Amino acid sequence: MTLFLARGAVIRATQDTSSWPLIDPLPSYGRGRELPGKRYISLIHGNGLQDVFITGENGTIDGQGSVWWDMWKKGTLPFTRPHLLELMDSSNAIVSNLVFQDSPFWNIHPVYCSNVLIRNLTILAPHDSPNTDGIDPDSSSNVCIEDCNISTGDDLIAIKSGWDEYGIAYGRPSSGITIRRITGSSPFAGFSVGSETSGGVEDVLAEHLNFYSSGFGVHIKTNSGRGGFIRNITVSDVILDNVRYGLRIAGDVGGHPDERNLVLSITGI
């Protein structure tokens, strides 16, 4: 499957939130990430695909997310907000040479995927836009993210692997992930692991990163009861400018509704 956006082309999401279909929650989350029940489908959504190419000549995918951000701030969201792009249970995917802007929620979310290359993207959202993560590989393996410029309202890149008891039961880690030559700014983290790590995160290399005007350079975050593991994470060649904290490893991030006695293991950082 190929989606190609020529120079000047724009895919623009509707701001009529009632026209967005609902889909089931991910099995490794058990519910919508923000609210119980279903979630809105992503603007571009694929499930069970092979040999996927989403690319172009720097065409734009515009989520027009302000209506969703306002609903979140007012507490009027009925369901979890949509991503701009979500690929599920897919393999051999390339996402490249595009601009993603103003996502309602996380921008790019490969989940249960393998062999994914994400490169040469510009991802933009205002710094006060809630939860507009740039790229969030989730319970996925053999992922490479490189040569991207990202400025959003939340973590620029966040590796995840499911949430609490559902992520533990699903049991699919994120592994074999390479992140390199990423530049950007966020009120939160440039590069993070977590806080949803219940399936485990391992064998990650992040290098040649350049973050400015941000909250954290590198943030490894979880919470008591998450379960899972974080191991073999290597970060090198990081340039930080006007960043509040260079590195933070925290065990008190994110709410936890389930079993608080589960212990997460962190090794090889």
UniProtKB/TrEMBL annotation:
The keyword Hydrolase applies. The lineage of its organism: Eukaryota, Viridiplantae, Streptophyta, Embryophyta, Tracheophyta. Keywords: Glycosidase, Hydrolase. Belongs to the glycosyl hydrolase 28 family. This is Putative polygalacturonase. InterPro entries: GH28_Enzymes, Glyco_hydro_28, PbH1, Pectin_lyas_fold, Pectin_lyase_fold/virulence. Transmembrane segments: none annotated. The keyword Nucleotide-binding does not apply. It comes from Triticum urartu.
